[in-house]
């Protein structure tokens, strides 16, 4: 009887140690304000992690998430969200923010031209590579995209992501590259007042994923559920062409199904008439949506572990409720 009691206490102690370890894990996030970054912040917090955000505008970040702004001396706060001022492109700022952290998640995005995207992606990756040296981090996760493969390196989005991936792979920490499928939240970007806009046919099928499902994958990765040093393809449960995905979204969220089809070349013309960096980005993204298959043809059996469960109809129902 005594030995059984002792075994029970031992198991209880082990469980307590595991919970304590979980509660004291601190994850630094670079890019926590984006469409994919925000759900990751919230999921990590709900799973018991402490989240630290590196932000160039800490007061705006606190207005959005709450939390505590800490100094750049690497201090810690008794709060689920810590915010520290700094720039993810500077190794010193990233290194300072990493003090006391067990992991790092990168989810930066810029919807501008090639030069801006290259500068952000490569400089952030190089800053991280310098900052993680000798720290013994558990894991560095990087948000890439399912379009990334060597066949489309003429597209500057793919080229920037591939170059950044290699830097994370070569860094001095366990890594995981997450080539996530098209987020369902991006459908809102192609919707103007309840009218969907498409450029060209956009006939490739993609496993659109809810950002909340992607956030769950990131949290599981930092809980140690996947082996590090691999590329994974988080994706949704169903393949949809852009037409079907947008039509489903418009009909179920906006109660209409109007779609405007524009020629693919209209962005090239607009870019020449109005030389704005974001038009260069959208032209490159339209090329991928029209021509590039997602990486699902390369998905291995173990990638089924990161398949999302939220269907497009379920996501649309959630969006409809938020609008009410």
Keywords:
3-stranded mixed β-sheet, globular, Rossmann fold, 8-stranded parallel β-sheet, alpha/beta
Number of domains: 1
What order do the strands of the largest sheet run in, or round the barrel if closed?
3-4-2-1-5-6-7-10
CATH superfamily: NAD(P)-binding Rossmann-like Domain
Number of helices: 11
CATH architecture label name: 3-Layer(aba) Sandwich
Percentage of residues in strands: 15-25%
Order of helices and strands: HEHEHEEHEHEHEEEHEHEHHH
What does this structure look like?
The strands form 2 sheets. This protein has an 8-stranded parallel sheet, sandwiched between helices. The protein is globular, with a radius of gyration of 21 Å. The protein contains 11 helices and 11 strands. The termini are far apart. It has a single domain (2-183, 209-237, 292-309), classed as Rossmann fold (3-Layer(aba) Sandwich), CATH 3.40.50.720. Helix content is 43%, strand content 16%. It is α/β, with parallel strands linked by helices. Helix 5 (114-131) links the parallel strand 5 (103-106) and strand 6. The chain has helices at residues 2-23, 37-46, 58-65, 91-97, 114-131, 156-169, 211-222, 242-253, 266-273, 277-291, 312-323; strands spanning 26-30, 50-55, 68-70, 81-85, 103-106, 139-145, 175-180, 191-192, 195-199, 230-232, 258-262.
